[in-house]
Design a protein that fits this description.
112 residues, alpha+beta, Jelly Rolls, four-stranded antiparallel sheet, two-stranded antiparallel ribbon, 6 strands, UPF0047_YjbQ-like, Secondary thiamine-phosphate synthase enzyme, YjbQ-like_sf
Length: 112
């Protein structure tokens, strides 16, 4: 994302993941927050047979609810080609789905 933004000046960078079972978030990484997020989502969305969406691996219905809690996009202000993230902020892909190992992320920019 940083490399993408250097080609622009001021504006907004949107980070979007076009998948029904993934989202993106802005969190602190490396200090335990990333593991805490995964642990919280696993408790919130247990992998069992309670879901009506029942195709795929056991508990896959939980994966399809994740984007309701972790949005599929974030927008970050950019100034002088640099994302204005806080010191401890990182953009992370959040995906607990074990059925699809490949993911793509789309970046777009609105000048202004």
């Amino acid at each position: 994302m940083r490399a993408f933004c250097t080609a622009h000046d001021d504006g907004l960078c949107n980070v979007f993941v076009p998948h029904a079972t993934a989202g993106v978030a802005i969190i602190e990484t490396g200090a335990g927050s990333d593991e805490d997020l995964v642990d919280t989502l696993v408790r919130l969305l247990p992998r069992d047979d309670r879901y009506r969406h029942a195709h795929g691996s056991y508990g896959h219905g939980a994966d399809h609810l994740l984007p309701a809690f972790v949005a599929p996009s974030v927008t970050v202000p950019v100034s002088g080609g640099q994302p204005l993230l806080g010191t401890w902020q990182s953009i992370v892909l959040v995906d607990l789905n074990q059925d699809n190992p490949r993911r793509s992320v789309r970046l777009s920019f609105v000048e202004g």
